[in-house]
Amino acid sequence: MRRASIAVFAVLLAGLSLVDAGAAEVHSLVYVNGRPTRVYFNDGDSFRQLNGPYTGRGSRLGGFNTLESFGPAHAWGNWHPYELWINAKLATYNGRRGIWHCTTDGGTDTYGRVLLDCPDLAIDQIRRGYAHAMNIDDTPARPEYLRAQQEAIAARRGMWAHGVPSFVLTSLHSRDEDPTKDQHKNRMVSVRDGHSEPWIHDDRYAECEWVCANEIVADEAAVRDFARALRADREVAPALADTSNLLLIELVDRYARLGTVPEYTTPEVRALVEPRLEAAKREGRLGQATERIGACAIYVDFRRRYGLNRAVCMRGRGEIPPQLRALRGLE
To answer: Where residue 75 sits, what CATH number does that domain have?
Structure first.
């Protein structure tokens, strides 16, 4: 079954490659601030606008993220990097074949790309398992995005079919990129609520080196039990009335893992909940946290990801990271 799955994915990727290699770009229709706009999808979460006020501008679509499409760059669970690369290509294809609606105030990201909000595209990509919800700070993603993601995870669609990490490792930065900095950050995005946590380091990564996150995992049953207890606490319950069950679980899980609560926790909730969490952790009611290998990503400098000069590991189907090979007993 697994070989057949890979074979089917390979045929799909070959078809997408032929489209990408064609003489003419595949143009799609997106309504930008209500104006019909021709665009070219570079991948599943960005495109170049071909007419209108932002003609020729690259555009980044906020609130969600698709996997890297420049090569077999991701791995977790029982996935092979090649399969997740195909997932990224399918996200691109899904973006190209639809008609979407986006808005922008003209703001840009650090790369100068116009930032757009495209809820219909985001929900469709997430629900199909072609993308995951993502905010670049500690705030949770939109509830509708998280509902779509929970649906995809429950159905094991797309990128969740062969494993669900606690975090997706979305970017790597080696100290070589800017030796003047004392600290460097990789980005890890929570699969539960879409918030980002920085992985602070001072490591130098070699080209084509696999880097895997060591996740601290809380006792899920204990976390859920304590979340229910907070919801049933007559003193605390009114303050939690506007907090969804998912975000309440995230609050308890964060404290069980790291001894902190999310930054977006209101002062009222913090004042009521933190003493209870502290006591529960001291008494062992939050269970025992464990450590495991989570999501992995391959390091390749952005200048070596495309073209004739691209890195060797970007030219084939990739290899399972040695960390996951050892975990799977393949060494």
So the answer is: 2.40.50.90
Q: How many helices, marked H, and strands, marked E, lie in the chain?
A: 8, 14
**Counted domains in the chain:** 2
Residues 229-260: b if buried by 16+ CB within 10 A, e if exposed: ebeeeeebeebbeebeebbbbbbbbbbbbeee
Report, in this order, helix, strand and coil percent for the chain, each rounded to 5.
35, 25, 40
- Size of the chain, expressed as the number of residues it contains: 331
Q: What is the pLDDT of residues 14-68, one digit of tens each?
A: 445 444 544 468 899 999 999 999 999 999 999 999 999 999 999 999 999 999 9
pLDDT tens readout for residues 264-312: 999 999 999 999 999 999 999 999 999 999 999 999 999 999 998 999 9
Segments forming the whole domain that contains residue 245 = 220-282
**SS3 of 144, please?**
helix
Residues 8 and 76 both lie in one domain:
yes
